[in-house]
């Protein structure tokens, strides 16, 4: 049955207008993005198939173009549209994060980091450099791969902090395993970075670990 044949209150678009986007399921939201289905499948059916194939919205967003386009009814145009939507969401969150004191808007920082790092297939280490008023100046991905104290070079981090004339920094990295708990090497690395940056009067305000649906804060755990 076509979505146009559904009762008005059950159609995703009408439901969103009447009740807001939060009232829709993942499949319904994705169906609005897809707009149309394929022969024998409505947009909602196709959305459910995509979610079943990739396991979650997070995995779908992180899917490679080849894997995404392998689904019947998908193609490069839809892949490009999806990446554009994701990038607009990232930029909107970054604008919110940059609009004031990062410590007074921790939700925006968390949301930005989760959208940026969740679903990445390898570990990525990044830094958010802040001025003396804790306003965000720039966010940079600094290293990628298996992160240890030897692969994340404190000297290079100090050089970037000095380049941006930063007064403080927030670090973040992801755990592709989905486990947000910090490892011993995470703690050793954070301590080494904090010590190195203290020599040039740059404060480490926090270190976030993004994993699965979670985002762990070293500061909240008392680990800084």
Describe this protein's structure.
- This protein has helices at residues 12-19, 26-34, 43-54, 57-61, 65-69, 76-98, 106-117, 154-163, 184-198, 218-221, and strands at residues 124-130, 136-144, 168-174, 203-211, 214-217.
- It is of the alpha+beta class.
- The chain has a 5-stranded mixed β-sheet with strand order 2-1-3-4-5, with helices on both faces.
- The model has no long low-confidence stretch (mean pLDDT 85).
Topology (elements, then pairings):
Blueprint: H1 12-19, H2 26-34, H3 43-54, H4 57-61, H5 65-69, H6 76-98, H7 106-117, E1 124-130, E2 136-144, H8 154-163, E3 168-174, H9 184-198, E4 203-211, E5 214-217, H10 218-221
Parallel strand pairs: 3-4
Antiparallel strand pairs: 1-2, 1-3, 4-5
